[in-house]
Design a protein that fits this description.
By secondary structure, this protein is of the alpha/beta class. The protein is built from three helices and five strands; from the N terminus they run E-E-E-H-E-H-E-H.
Length: 108
């Protein structure tokens, strides 16, 4: 019996990301998770289009994606792939933003 895996991807904005280099895959016999780091929304759309062609079922986006960026992704890949956005509560968001700021994410 052949079992089809549930394929999902997590995409996160990172200022110094290179999506060709900064990716990994974790899988079991039933589940496949691909994590990809991207620098900007244009890269995210390109990656989502690639994932759609590869048969991904669901894409999870980091909290940095705006509503407009999410709409652009849906327009690019269609409505047959689930799109979720990882959003934290106010306290969690502040903690994460502080750590990101200390790591130099928001340098101009």
């Amino acid at each position: 019996m052949t079992t089809k895996k549930f394929k999902t991807a997590f995409i996160a904005h990172v200022p110094d990301a290179d999506p060709k280099r900064d990716r990994c895959k974790i899988e079991t016999s039933l589940y496949e998770l691909t994590s990809i780091l991207i620098k900007d929304d244009d890269q995210a759309i390109k990656i989502c289009e690639e994932l759609a062609k590869e048969g991904v079922h669901s894409i999870i986006l980091c909290p940095g994606f705006t509503h407009k960026a999410i709409a652009r992704i849906i327009d690019a890949i269609g409505e047959n792939i689930g799109i979720s956005v990882a959003r934290g509560d106010d306290t969690s968001t502040r903690i994460a933003l502080k750590a990101m700021e200390e790591a130099g994410w928001f340098k101009k």
